[in-house]
Amino acid sequence: MEEVLSGEIQTLKNMIESSNSAVNELRQDITRQTELGKSLQGRMDSMNANMRAVKHEVNTHQQEITDLHDKLVEMEDRSRRCNVRLVGLPESAEGENAVQFLQEHLPELDPSHPRLMESKKPAAHVSTAVVKRHIVHEHSSFGSSDIKNRERILIEPEHPV
To answer: What ranges do the domains of the chain cover?
Structure first.
């Protein structure tokens, strides 16, 4: 009987040793997984910090773009202050060369000229031409027979100062 019991005890010892060996392997696997998890957590924290920095930089650039856009709009508005609006010209009256047309048909533009100060409202169907003031040089007086409705033509600054 002792022999049978000793055989059974030996079998149990072998099973306990194999179980302990399996538990040790699992413990080592858990330790490796824990280290890997810590490493991944560190990488994730680093990526989150980088992402916050990039978001802040993008927001800064978006604000700069908005500011530059506002400055561009202001500069465009300022550049238009020197423009002159001609209201009441028949459609395509200037033909191919608008500068030559203006030189031939408009009086010298003087800001104190009474026609520049008129506040008449043009008809809704009349086209509008916008030209730079500095394009118009010395030219003949206004009165060409090529233009119909000469008395309805109004010269006004596009953006009053």
So the answer is: 1-80, 82-157
C-beta separation of 153 from 86 below 8 A: yes
Residue 157: name the closest of 102, 122, 103, 119 by CA: 119
- Closest residue by Cα to residue 89 from 146, 23, 161: 146
Kindly report the pTM of this predicted structure. 0.41
Looking at the chain, list the stretches that DSSP marks H as alpha helix, in order from N- to C-terminal side: 2-80, 98-105, 114-117
As a whole number of angstroms, the distance between CA 66 and CA 119 comes to 36
Furthest C-alpha separation in the chain: 140
**Each residue's pLDDT tens digit, 73-109:** 999 888 877 776 777 777 777 778 877 777 777 665 5
The total of other beta-carbon atoms located within 10 Å of residue 69's CB is 10
Would you say residue 2 has pLDDT above 90? no
**Residue 156: Cβ-neighbour burial (10 angstroms; 0-12, 13-18, 19+):** middle
- Token digits of residue 43: 């990488």
Spatial separation of the C-alpha atoms in residues 109 and 115, rounded to whole Å: 9
